[in-house]
Specification:
The complex is a heterodimer. By secondary structure, chain A is α/β, with parallel strands linked by helices. Helix content of chain A is about 50%, strand content about 30%. Chain A has 5 helices and 5 strands; from the N terminus they run H-E-E-H-E-H-E-H-E-H. In chain A, helix 2 packs parallel to helix 3 (about 80-95). The relative contact order of chain A is 0.14. Chain B is built from 5 helices and 5 strands; from the N terminus they run E-H-H-E-E-H-H-E-E-H. Chain B has helices spanning about 15-25, 30-55, 95-100, 110-115, 140-145, and strands at about 1-10, 60-70, 70-80, 120-125, 125-135. In chain B, helix 1 (about 15-25) packs antiparallel against helix 2 and helix 2 (about 30-55) packs antiparallel against helix 4. Classes of the chains: A alpha/beta, B alpha+beta. The interface between A and B is medium-sized, with 32 and 32 residues.
C-alpha cells in the first residue's frame, strides 16, 4: 500500500511540474452524463496535446455531452483550435453534444477570425451550456 | 522603436515569446484584442518553424525583430539553414475538409494571412526571412499625444 501511495505522490508531482512547465492546467468534472473539461492558462502548440488526450478519453466514454469550460482560458492558437476540429467528426458520429462556454474576448476573436463559430457551438456561460446540453 | 529577440527552436519557448511581445505591446499602447492577434501571428509562425523547419532541434536559433514606425508594426523572423519556403503555394484552410480529414493542423497560416496586412517570405543565404506587417493608424495619434 505504501508503495502505491508513494507512486501516486510521484505521479501527482510529475503532473504538477508538467502543468507548471507547460503553463496550462486541465481538469475534468462529471455531471450525470455530461463531461466537463476545464482549461486554465494557455493552449498552444506545446500544451495542446494534453487537451487532445482529454478529448480522446471523454469521447471513449458513453457521454451524452462534452462541454469545454473556457472561462480561465487565457490564450488559444491554431494548435488548440485544431484539437477541437479534429474530434468533430467522431463527436457527430457518436451523437455527443459538444460545446465550449465562457470564452473571453481575445479567445472568441481568434475563434471568429477563422469562422469556427459556424462549426463549433459556444455559449457565454456554463448555465446556458448545461441547459442546451440537457435540453436535447 | 525596434525590439529583438532570439530563441532556441523549442516549443517550450513559445510562452516566453508571447510574454515578451505582450510587454512590448503594452508599452506601445496596442489594444488588447490586436495585441493578442499580433502575438498569435508570431506564435503561429514560430510554432511552424520549430515543428516543421527546425524539427524541434533546440540547437537551432530563430531570430525575431519587431519594429514600430509610423503606425505600422513589422515583424521579421529569421529561419536559418532551411530549404526555401514558397508561401505562394499555401492554400487557405478549408474548414469542412479539415473536419472530414480529422486534421489538427492546417489553420495557422490562414490565421496569419487573415490578421496581417502584408505577409511575405524572402530567401537569402539559406535563410527564410518572414516579413509581416500590420497597419495600426491609431498608434500615430497615441504617440503624438504621448
Amino acid at each position: 500500500m505504501k508503495k502505491i501511495s508513494f507512486l501516486q505522490k510521484i505521479i501527482t508531482l510529475c503532473k504538477f511540474l508538467r502543468n507548471l512547465y507547460q503553463k496550462m492546467n486541465l481538469s475534468t468534472e462529471q455531471q450525470q452524463e455530461i463531461h466537463i473539461i476545464h482549461i486554465e492558462g494557455d493552449l498552444d502548440a506545446s500544451s495542446s496535446i494534453i487537451l487532445d488526450t482529454a478529448m480522446y478519453e471523454a469521447i471513449s466514454k458513453p457521454e451524452k455531452a462534452i462541454l469545454v469550460d473556457c472561462e480561465k482560458l487565457n490564450y488559444i492558437s491554431s494548435a488548440g483550435l485544431g484539437v477541437f476540429m479534429s474530434h468533430l467528426s467522431d463527436l457527430e458520429e457518436k451523437n455527443i453534444f459538444f460545446a465550449l462556454y465562457g470564452m473571453n474576448e481575445k479567445v472568441k476573436n481568434v475563434f471568429e477570425i477563422l469562422g469556427l463559430e459556424q462549426l463549433i457551438k459556444h455559449f457565454p456561460s456554463k448555465q446556458i451550456a448545461l441547459q442546451e446540453a440537457l435540453g436535447r | 522603436m525596434k525590439y529583438d529577440l532570439s530563441i532556441k527552436a523549442d516549443k517550450k519557448n513559445l510562452k516566453k515569446v508571447r510574454n515578451f511581445l505582450g510587454e512590448v505591446f503594452v508599452k506601445l499602447q496596442v489594444s488588447a484584442i490586436e495585441a493578442n492577434q499580433l502575438i498569435l501571428v508570431v506564435d503561429e509562425i514560430l510554432a511552424n518553424l520549430i515543428i516543421h523547419s527546425s524539427k524541434n532541434d533546440p540547437q537551432k536559433n530563430i531570430d525575431l525583430t519587431l519594429t514600430e514606425k509610423g503606425g505600422e508594426i513589422t515583424f521579421e523572423i529569421y529561419d536559418y539553414n532551411s530549404p526555401y519556403f514558397d508561401l505562394t503555394q499555401h492554400q487557405d484552410a478549408n474548414l469542412q475538409e479539415l473536419v472530414k480529414q480529422k486534421r489538427k493542423g492546417g489553420m495557422g497560416l490562414t490565421l496569419v494571412k487573415n490578421i496581417m496586412d502584408e505577409v511575405e517570405v524572402s530567401y537569402e543565404d539559406n535563410t527564410n526571412i518572414w516579413r509581416l506587417q500590420k497597419r495600426l493608424p491609431y498608434l500615430l495619434v497615441k504617440n503624438k499625444n504621448a
